[in-house]
Design brief:
Layout (H helix, E strand, L loop, with lengths): L3 H14 L2 H7 L2 E3 L2 E2 L12 E2 L30 H7 L2 H17 L4 E2 L23 H16 L4 E7 L12 E3 L2 H8 L1 H8 L5 E4 L3 E2 L2 E2 L4 H11 L5 E4 L7 H6 L19 H8 L5 H17 L15 H14 L1 E5 L13 E5 L24 H9 L4 E5 L15 H8 L11 H20 L2 E7 L20 H11 L4 E5 L15 E4 L7 H9 L21 H4 L8 E3 L8 H6 L17 E8 L8 E9 L5 E11 L10 E10 L4 E8 L6 E3 L4 E3 L3 E10 L2 E10 L2
Parallel strand pairs: 3-4, 4-5, 5-7, 6-8, 6-17, 7-10, 12-13, 12-14, 14-15, 15-16
Antiparallel strand pairs: 1-2, 8-9, 11-16, 18-19, 19-22, 20-21, 20-25, 23-24, 25-26
Helix pairs in contact: 1-11, 2-11, 3-12, 4-5, 4-12, 5-7, 12-17, 13-17, 15-16
The structure holds beta-D-glucopyranose (BGC).
Length: about 725
Amino acid sequence: MESKSVMDKKIEDLLSQLTLEEKLGMIHGDGLFCTKGVERLDIPPLKMSDGPMGVRNEFEKDKWIAVGNSDDYVTYLPSNSALSSTWNRELAYRMGQVLGEEARGRGKDVILAPGINIKRSPLCGRNFEYMSEDPYLTKEEAVPLIQGIQESDVAACVKHFALNNQETERLWVDVEIGERPLREIYLPAFYDAVKRGGAYSLMGAYNKVRGEHCCQSHYLLDEILREEWKYDGTVISDWGAVHDTAEAAKTSLDIEMSVTDNFDEYCLANPLYQEIQEGRIAKSFIDSKVRRILRMMERLHMLGGERKSGCYHTPGHRQTALETARESIVLLKNEDQRLPLQRKNIKKLLVIGDNGERIHSNGGGSAEIKALYEISPLLGLKSMLGGNTEIKYVRGYCPDTKEEPGEVNWQEASLNAGNGTKDNLAKDSALQEKRNKLRKEAVEAASEYEEVLFIGGLNHDYDVEGYDREDMILPYGQDEVIRQVLKANPNTVVILSAGAPVEMKSWVNEAKALVWNWYAGMEGGTALAEVLLGEVNPSGRLPETFPKTHLDCPATRLGEFPGKEKVCYREGIYVGYRYYDTFEIEPQFCFGYGLSYTEFTCGNLEISDNSSAFPVSVSLDVKNTGEKSGKEVVQLYVRCLEPKEERPYQELKGYEKVLLDPGEEKRICFLLDESSFHYYDEKQGDFCIEPGRYEICIGKSSRDICQKKEINIVI
Ligand code: BGC
């Protein structure tokens, strides 16, 4: 590794040779996904690509038109919501390695991932791209993911910095937020992404914060990111997020990207040149930006030296996609041990539901993928069960008929269309009639089959960029289909694929078995079949609370989701389980919840007695008392018992995923540093620890605490 001073010297040397025009070429898009290089100095253009579930297909340089060759098929990875559902840091790291190798293999320098915004409301259209409602879980999964990506000489571009928690009016909505929730809930994952993860770049968000657009925000970019956190990486704007030349030039944003092809007219192109020529903006602002870009290029070995070449769509990558998918599936209900299905006894199987055979990889917005292949649940089941099982598929319900896409790519139109309202999709009587027919056919078939699977949920008409859902109700009349199918055949297994929770209250008590499946990547159908048939023991745990209805969500209760011009985060620190657990609102399924085909117990909780010294060490035994091998996620929550300041009921501060054979027992250990006990004190403008009694709670979920012990923190 090159020493800092050698690197700095090289960068200063290059900087001194660059003309103003050349520098400006480096700080704004010269194509939809690239900047200008400087050939005479061997500075290449910077090539970027979406996104979080795999490297996006190739577009023409200046048009939202797919090149359309056959050489950009890639590995389709599980979404971030699926990844965080594994609670497995190792898989996050491996998924990062895949993303990095594939990006590099496709000749990219920056991969526009991961998305790590906190899930403030279950209705946000991009929640499927994000990880969790909890900052600790988000950062624990994001850090190894970033490290994995960057091993391949590719920069992760962590997005969207910051407070991009809704799609409605995403370009203009102004977030008003107190300092404490900002520091405790919304910033920690970004902090760790740059500090521990070493992310080479960040993407500034579309929205405003306290009146300033994020990509021009002195507070977020200059004060917090650069001065406090000492971040020396590159900040890239979201596509079309820069609005003012002087503001963007003077803040420490580095690269302006957008969705239109008038590259010379971007704020940081000719308009900035003009401002500089007329003496209104100092050249030193531009030098700082170019310096940071060159630094990133040097870190990626773009300015000479040996650079990794990467590779894509390899068998190893597909294996990682499969293993991640397996561990992301969450078993939510399993009465009478309905699952796993007894493979040998299944002569006839009925699969109902549009998601049974739907391909999801090609949707969702900028996270869309040109997947090498995608195994649907139906394909996964058929290929595992083989010819001795007759599998019948009926659709059961159908999505609204969608208008054919026009000539303008949605992304190009997004600067005008980001108002979060959807076209009124057809609700005509012909569609209702079609749905009635499909439902009737499914219900009749369900009564004739012994084994019935309903596979529904959402799709990328709902889990999508640019729009938020209005409620959590399953679309396309699915509730009625599920209710009637369960009546016709009470043994029906309900499987839902979606990027965010849905209402289940009208049928959930009737369903004996319920499986949650996210968007699980190219091998999602294989993984689902393996779980249903017992080849794989499910080990996913919910990375977010599934409330009964969106009306229970604090942001909605306060009338603060979605904001139009302004949104005030009045719920403060009470996001997700911090709210539901503190105010005793019973969710449908709580944070951290998930079942297994085996049973686990925890015991012998011990805490190091020297409570005035950090880290505090916590250890316990975990045992598989059932009959199948399986993975348990041991979760550690910290609770302040006599807070003088407002505190949530408890907070996740540790977790470990352990594989145990039947009868096997392992001792696991957690080390808790200051951050496990601290809170942000607005008066002091810093994180503080209250001395006093705390409870260390070990749980299978936030609401199933199996061991706890008190500790006295002396400061
Ligand atoms: C999205 C970003 C994405 C960018 C480039 C924007 O619409 O918000 O997440 O990386 O487009 O496609």
